[in-house]
Amino acid sequence: MLTVACRQRLQHILKKPGGQLVSAGNTCFPVNGRTLFAHTAPVPDRLATIRRPAETEIINTRDFVLDMGGDEGHGAHSGHAAMDMTINGSAMDMNVINEQVRRGVWERWRIRSNQGAHPFHVHGCSFLVEQMEGAAATPDQQGWKDTVVLDDDDWSEIVVRFDHQATEQHPYMYHCHILEHEDRGMMGQFTVTDSTG
């Protein structure tokens, strides 16, 4: 068998016993020394329809502001290690539940950064992006997501519903998905219960 470059349309060549060559049109991907074949059927003209919640179904709005600060007096090249990284003014504290969410209801979460771009990730759900940095979500962002990119230009908004319980002993988290930022505190915890307590 002849292995070819990944992601190229090709004629895959197989050698039959006795040395005879047979070719079959396919796309293949070499993975760990094995050749895997890709499904090459055309994309359908119409993709799945996603039912978005009506405005009247969204019962609560929460704002989240990601902030990087505290670098004053440390020099221009001190990096993230000298910065405070917070959400809504608070750094991650394992002993604090930052939000209490009601199970099974739609909420709008508005998220923005006060400095720089951040991928904002939410545990325990998939959500729908309504706007990114103040503009309507582009077609590639209109499916189910678990991360939304934001910048300091404007608010990004998602609509989200949590269908599984998260207790104070086992809460869900939301955080910047840049490892150094979440390690410096840009993270929060929330519970999901049948009442907002």
| Overall body shape | globular
Element-level helix/strand string: EEEEEEEEEEEEEEHE
Q: Count every beta strand, where a strand is a DSSP E run of 2 or more residues.
A: 15
User: Could you tell me the radius of gyration in angstroms?
Assistant: 23 Å
Distinct helical segment count: 1
Beta-strand residue fraction: 35-45%
Q: What is the residue-averaged pLDDT?
A: 81
Question: What ranges have pLDDT less than 50 throughout 5 or more consecutive residues?
Answer: 1-25, 73-77
Secondary structure elements and pairings:
Blueprint (H helix, E strand, L loop, with lengths): L8 E7 L5 E11 L2 E4 L20 E12 L14 E4 L11 E4 L3 E8 L4 E5 L4 E6 L2 E2 L7 E2 L1 E4 L5 E6 L10 E5 L2 H5 L3 E7 L4
Parallel strand pairs: 4-7, 6-15
Antiparallel strand pairs: 1-2, 2-3, 4-5, 7-13, 8-12, 8-14, 9-10, 9-11, 9-13, 14-15
Describe, in plain words, how this protein is organized in 3D.
The protein contains one helix and 15 strands; from the N terminus they run E-E-E-E-E-E-E-E-E-E-E-E-E-E-H-E. The chain is mainly beta. The strands form three sheets. Strands 4, 5, 7, 9, 10, 11 and 13 form a seven-stranded mixed β-sheet that branches. The chain has a five-stranded mixed β-sheet with strand order 6-15-14-8-12. The protein has a three-stranded antiparallel β-sheet with strand order 1-2-3, with no helix packed on it. The N and C termini lie far apart (64 Å). The N terminus is likely disordered.
